[in-house]
Amino acid sequence: MDIFFTLVVTLIPLYILIGLGFIAGRFLQVDRTTLANLALFIFLPVVVFGFIIQLDFRPEYTILPFILYAIHALIGLSMLKVGRKIYEGPEANILALTASMGNTGYFGLPLVLLLFPPEAVAIYVFAMLGGSVYEATIGYYIAARGRFDMRSSLKKLAKFPTLYAMALAFILRGAQVEVPEAFFIYWTYFKGAYVVIGMMIIGAALSNVRHLVIGPRFFSLALLGKFVLWPGLVCGFILLDKLFFHMFTPEVYSLMLVMSVVPPAANIVAFAAQLDLVPEKAATTIFLGTVIALFYIPLVLMLTGIQ
Question: What residues contact residue 274 under an 8 Å CB cut-off, 6+ apart?
Answer without folding.
Answer: none
